[in-house]
Amino acid sequence: MPLSQPSPRGGEGFKPIGPIPPEFAGQARLAIGGRDATEWAADGTPVFVYDMAVVANRIARLRAALPAKIDIHYAIKANPFVPFLQNVSELVDGLDVASSGELTKALAVKPAATISFAGPGKRDEELDAAISAGVTINLESEGEAERALALADRLGVTPRLAVRVNPDFELRGSGMKMGGRASPFGIDAVRVPSLVRRLVGAGVDWRGFHIFAGSQSLDVQAIIETQAATLALAARLADDAGTAPPLVNLGGGFGIPYFAGDVALDVEAIGAALGERLAARPAILGGSRFAIELGRWLVGEAGVYLTRVVDRKESGGETFLVVDGGLNHQLAATGNFGTVVRRNYPIALARDVMGSAAETVSIVGPLCTPLDRLADRIAFPRAEPGDLVAVFLAGAYGATASPAAFLGHPPAREVIGGQA
Ligand SMILES: Cc1ncc(COP(=O)(O)O)c(C=O)c1O
Fold it and tell me: Is the confidence at residue 400, as pLDDT, over 70?
């Protein structure tokens, strides 16, 4: 049953899959970082394999696209696997962390001055650790600001502080909106200038603004407009506060194509527009540096989750391939991590990546819940127990964003390959 259009695999009676990242699409047998998938799986499945060459390519492309004044920060929540993080940290200018656990990992690989700590509800111990280390804290509330000042006073340290602004706009088209509404994230823009005056008056090492308006947008125009609005907001807040920001973190929001019909972002167009805006920026931002903060765009396409077929069974006229991992490791691929409508991630049989479809199958994990479905009624080559299935786009929000302890299956292994 060969298909007229091999990618996205789909057709009569099938549901389509998302686009396989270009580095892996078109291969006959799946190789990751120059090694065959079967070699990666030899020490046990399920396993996340991260191809560092793919990350390096993404970062190099972004650097070429962005104006030189823009630093690239990696939000380590996307993938904090230590060997992976060590590698990525060498390629980026800064790291953004969201907990003391992430802070410890970041401090092991990058100087404190290049690390920032955002996230609501930072506990005193977390503020203490960040201030002591000299990490920039992106303050999420006036209350947090006062606690940070008091802790710094007690420690006898000048804290490096920035304010996370809850912008009065959102990133249009983003999967996760973080602005333009009441929010646990950041401080409402109207209240920011008085807080900045308070911080500067208290003698802190004032670092500037963090403005993060959303995530997972594939809309180039929306990102361009949001970056322009972010620059304008930073300038307005700085003017109102009477203090220039040394750094403006413009947020991120760059999405990757997960589903059929999604189109990869034109980052060159985004970089060109940002270059024009920066060239014409208001005077108060004349001496500022700028950063963008990204997770999934940098690393998401570099990861492949390999899981092995344990069983094939028929029920009600449908064929199920039961594999040895699922939502316990790759929650997002099962549609249970923030998606409204469940759609299929790119997925393939590792020994026949672009193989012609022999049958319609659903690929399910071993958990006793109907939610544990990695692929729903897709066209697939004939697969047997022992075969390896590759779920793509597993480089971000995989292992640490999935309920690994649920039902007590072993955790997935994680490995890196493709290093320079
Ligand atoms: C403050 C902040 N920074 C960075 C990110 C990373 O987003 P993404 O992985 O979509 O680039 C998020 C996502 O939730 C975030 O909340």
Answer: yes
Average pLDDT over residues 112-132: 98
Q: Closest ligand 1 atom, CA of 178? A: 16
In the prediction, which pLDDT does 1 show?
36
State which ligand 1 atom lies nearest to the alpha carbon of 75: 4
User: How many domains would you assign to the chain?
Assistant: 2
Q: Judge contact between 412 and 374, C-beta under 8 A.
A: no
Residue of 97, 138, 140, 294 to test ligand 1 pocket, by largest number of atoms within 8 Å of CB: 294
Q: Do both 287 and 310 map to the same domain?
A: no
Do 137 and 158 fall into the same domain?
A: yes
Asked if residue 106 lies in contact with residue 112, where contact means CB atoms within 8 angstroms, the answer is: no
User: Tell me, what's the pLDDT at 9?
Assistant: 53
Do 236 and 254 share a domain, yes or no?
yes
Pocket test of ligand 1: the residue of 77, 211, 270, 337 to mutate, having most ligand atoms within 8 Å of its CB, is 77
In a domain, 9, yes or no: no
Residues 226 and 95 in one domain: yes
Residues 144 and 243 in one domain: yes
Mean pLDDT to the nearest integer, 151-162? 98
DSSP codes of every residue in 231-288: HHHHHHHHHHHT---SEEE----B----STT-----HHHHHHHHHHHHHT--GGGTT-
Confidence of residue 165 (pLDDT cuts 50, 70, 90): very high
300 CB within 6 A, ligand 1: no
Picking from 294, 318, 333, the residue at the C-terminal end of a domain is 294
Ligand 1 contact, 396 CB (< 6 A): yes
- Domain hosting 310: range is 31-50+301-417
Examine the fold and report which residue of 257, 274, 294 is the final residue of a domain before the chain moves on: 294
Query: Rounded to whole angstroms, how far apart are CA atoms 29 and 21?
Result: 15
pLDDT in tens, 316-359: 999 999 999 999 999 999 999 888 789 999 999 999 999 888 99
**CATH number, domain with residue 339:** 2.40.37.10
Q: CB–CB of 344/375 below 8 Å?
A: yes
